[in-house]
Every structure is written in C-alpha cells, then in structure tokens.
C-alpha cells in the first residue's frame, strides 16, 4: 500500500495513494482533532464521567494518522491502545504525525484488528472501543460483520462504549448499523447525520444510560474542558432513534 504524506496550509495529511484522506494533523497543534468525523467519534465521552478517564482503557482499531489515539492518551489522559495491520502506517505516524513511542499507558499493536478482538486477553479489557479500519481504496468498512461486533461486545468492560466511523464508495449505512446493532445489542445507539465528507459516526453504549440532566451537564463540561461541541452531539443524539435494550445479553 502506498503511503503518502503531504502538507498544506499548516496541516499534514496522510493518504494511501488515493483521493481519500486517512488522517490530518495541524502541525502547530498536533494533539488536536481536526477532521469533523474524528471530533464526532469522541461523543462517547457523554457516557463516561470525565473524572474517571485516567483509569480507563481506550482501544482504536485502525491507526490512520494517530489522531484518535493521541487525543485519548495525551489530552484525555487515558490508557490507549491502537491496532494497525500495516507497519508502514505505524512508521509514518511515528515519523511524521508525532505519535509517541510505546510506554506510559500508550501501546501500538502491529496486527490484525479482528484477531486482536478475538484474543482471550482482550475479553472484558476495553472501556471505549473506536472502530476506524479501512483499506486505501475505502470501498467500505473492513470490519463490518455481526460476528465481529459481537466479539467487540465481549471485549467491553461493564459500561463500555463503541464508536464506529462508516464511510466508503460502496457503503450501505443502514445495513452496517443493523449489523452493529445485532452484534453489540447496545442500550443506546446514536447514528449521527453524515459529515460534509460523508462520514457516518455511530455511538453504541452498552452500559446503564445516564439521566438526561447528567448528559446535559456532562456535555457542558466536555465543551469547557476540551473545546469539543458536546452540546451539539447531544442535540443530534436526541434526534437519533435509540436502540432498545436487548433481552438475554
């Protein structure tokens, strides 16, 4: 796979030899989330007490330019693991996108994301899972089966949340969300409208649902602490049909 790094207007961009951008970093603010979909992927924060994040484990499947992993580790102060199948992408992130070396709660696993999820050691080890795995052609999500999402469910700790980025030339978002819903059996599922670039972000929470007043207060706190548009996320979520709790899971 061809890995191309370019710069324009203070931004450093990663792509795999196609028109699809795989990640962006603002050179003057390398830990900031630049792409709209990456910002929306952080809407899982609404389900987690900001004071609890330092003790939690976030896993990202698909490294891209490392933005989601860096943000979780360096800004939110979480234990962060990224799983990436292409060694060249890992090398590019370390060389060009200021991804720190492993240690101090950060780990990059060179391997297959589905295999990582299936490992016995992964079971009940993840508080937040971000799924953002694509090939260079970006035809459709690489990891998009009900069985895969069921495996993700077993990887979650109590109260865990999954954020998924859906995009692609052959994307059937409705079918993807149906598979996600069946595999994860979440207590709440938020499907945000497409971004300008066409990304559909889905947040699936598998724990108890915070009351509305807690969500509203938390949205304000997230905006204050990290300058993220959490009140807008909450407004979009309220317009998104929730998933009913599934019996027997």
TrEMBL record:
SUPFAM superfamilies the record matches: S-adenosyl-L-methionine-dependent methyltransferases (SSF53335)
InterPro entries xref list: SAM-dependent_MTases_sf
Alphabetic keyword roster: Polyamine biosynthesis
Keyword field contains Transcription: no
GO biological process: polyamine biosynthetic process
Name used for this protein in its record: Spermidine synthase
